[in-house]
Design brief:
This is DUF2919 domain-containing protein. The chain contains 8 helices and no strands. The protein is mainly alpha-helical and about 150 residues long.
Length: about 150
């Protein structure tokens, strides 16, 4: 056994690392902002206008963040009798890497819309996405998290 017993859930599946969960929440940031804007009724439209001045980038962010939310949900549904869910989750690493690539393209598109001028939010977002991609590619724990004992 490579990991501590506390790192497995009740069904024997390895829990997702906290850094991976934080990365998924970062990928789903458009959803979080959308929910916060909906919860703050009066200021919601202004909040969305400040963070996403181009409405299409909000919609693209919602589409690009959906796989991360789906993986968070499906990871909690893994059980021994749900082989299809386990099979879908086993492709989670690839889906996350594709989602990160799409998010990087969205940031590059945002930089293009700003006439290639430097801005700290774009720089920090791009750097965070690259770090997250490297973490997912290199982490043994992430690889083992998506591996299902049922499919081995």
């Amino acid at each position: 056994m490579r990991y501590l017993i506390e790192e497995y859930n009740n069904d024997g599946f390895l829990k997702a690392p906290k850094l991976l969960l934080a990365g998924w929440l970062f990928l789903a940031k458009a959803w979080i902002i959308f929910i916060v804007a909906g919860a703050s009724r009066d200021m919601g439209a202004k909040l969305l206008e400040i963070i996403y001045p181009v409405h299409s980038s909000l919609y693209l962010g919602l589409i690009a963040g959906f796989p991360a939310l789906l993986l968070i949900w499906l990871l909690s549904l893994r059980k021994h009798d749900r082989k299809r869910i386990c099979m879908v989750v086993s492709y989670g690493k690839l889906a996350t890497l594709i989602t990160i690539s799409v998010q990087i393209l969205l940031v590059l598109y945002q930089i293009y819309l700003e006439n290639s001028q430097f801005s700290w939010p774009n720089a920090v977002t791009l750097l965070s996405l690259i770090w997250l991609m490297l973490y997912i590619l290199r982490s043994r724990r992430v690889r083992d998290c998506f591996r299902s004992p049922l499919l081995s």
